[in-house]
Amino acid sequence: MEIKEMESIIEGILFTMGDSVKPEKIANALSVEKDEVISCLDNMMKRYEEDNRGIRLMKLDDSYQMCTSPEIYEYLIKIAKQPKRYVLTEVLLETLSIIAYKQPVTKSEIDKIRGVSCGHAVNKLVEFNLVEEVGRLDAPGRPMLFGTTEDFLRSFGVSSIEELPQLNQVQIEEFKLQAEAEAKQVAVDI
Questions:
Q1: Residues with Cβ < 8 Å from 65, sequence gap 6 or more?
Q2: What is d(CA 13, CA 169) in angstroms, rounded to the nearest whole number?
Q3: d(CA 6, CA 8)
Q4: Could you confirm whether domain 90-189 is CATH 1.10.10.10?
Q5: Are 3-73 and 90-189 the same fold in CATH?
Q6: CA quadruple 25, 29, 33, 39: dihedral positive or negative?
Q7: What is the model's pTM?
Q8: Coil, helix or strand for 33?
Q9: Which of 154, 152, 160, 107 has the alpha carbon at shortest distance from 130?
Q10: Is 144 in contact with 110 (CB distance < 8 Å)?
Q11: Exposed, middle or buried: residue 144 (CB in 10 Å: 0-12, 13-18, 19+)?
Q12: For residues 62 and 24, what is the distance between their CA atoms, to the nearest angstrom?
C-alpha cells in the first residue's frame, strides 16, 4: 500500500471515529504492520503542524486522535456562542401548543387531539430542547409524559406556564367550529 493511500485511510478513520484509536487497530484494518502505521501517523503529525493546519493529530498514551489546532479555539468559541436558530413549522407549533397547555401529556393524547401521528414533531421538539420527558404514565406500556423545558419558557418570554395566554370560551367555540368545518371539507375531498 502506498504511503499517500495509507495516510488518506488513516485520516478518514481518525476523523470518523472522533475518539483515540490504537495503531494496532488501524494496522489490522489496513493489513499492515503496526510500525508502518506509527511511522505514517508520526509523519502526518509533523506535516499537519508544519502546514499550520486547522487540525492536529495527538498522541494520547498509546493511541492517536484527530483534534482541532489550539490556534482555532477562539473561532470555534465564536461559532459555538451563536444562538441556534430553529424553524418551527405549523405542525411543530401545533404540537408544542398542545404539550404546553395539556402537560404532562403522552404522544397518543397529542395524536388524538391533532388527529394525526405526532411522533416526528415531538422528537423534533425534544431535539430543539423545547420539550422533554417529564415522567411515565402509570398505565400499561408506561408511555412517556412530555412537558415543556426552561428553554421553552425563555424562547417564548414567559417565566412559567401560568403566564401562557388563556383562551376564552368564545375562542374555544370558534376553534371547534373551524375544526369541524375542516373535518367536513376533508371528508368531502376524500
A1: 14, 19, 20, 21, 57, 58
A2: 61
A3: 5
A4: yes
A5: yes
A6: negative
A7: 0.50
A8: coil
A9: 152
A10: no
A11: middle
A12: 10
